[in-house]
Design a protein that fits this description.
This protein is mostly helical. It has one domain (2-81). It is built from 4 helices and no strands. The chain has helices at residues 23-29, 31-43, 54-58, 68-81. The two termini are 19 Å apart. The structure holds zinc ion.
Length: 82
C-alpha cells in the first residue's frame, strides 16, 4: 500500500515490528510465520521446512516424493495457510 502512495502510520510488520511489512517477510521470514510453518510441518508430519520466497513456499509440495493425493492435500494446506 505504501508503494501505491497510501498513507500509513507505519510499514513495519505488525507481528514483530522489526522489518517492513513485505510479502516475503510476512509469509516466510517473520518469526510468527516461521512458528506457523513449524506447526504445519508437524501437523503434516514433515521435517521443518524453510522456503526462500513466497513462490517457493507455495510450490513446496512438489519437493516431496509421496502420493499425488498427499501432495495435493499439502498444497491445499499451504494455500490455506498463506
Ligand atoms: Zn515480522
Amino acid at each position: 500500500m505504501a508503494k501505491r502512495n497510501v498513507h500509513l502510520d507505519s510499514i513495519r510488520c505488525k507481528f514483530c515490528g522489526d522489518f517492513d511489512e513485505m510479502a516475503e517477510h510476512l509469509f516466510i521470514f517473520c518469526n510468527m510465520a516461521q512458528v506457523i510453518w513449524d506447526y504445519v510441518a508437524c501437523w503434516c508430519r514433515l521435517q521443518a521446512f524453510f522456503a526462500f520466497g513466497v513462490k517457493n513456499q507455495v510450490n513446496l509440495h512438489k519437493q516431496f516424493r509421496r502420493l499425488k493425493k498427499w501432495r495435493a492435500a499439502v498444497y491445499t494446506i499451504i494455500q490455506t495457510v498463506v
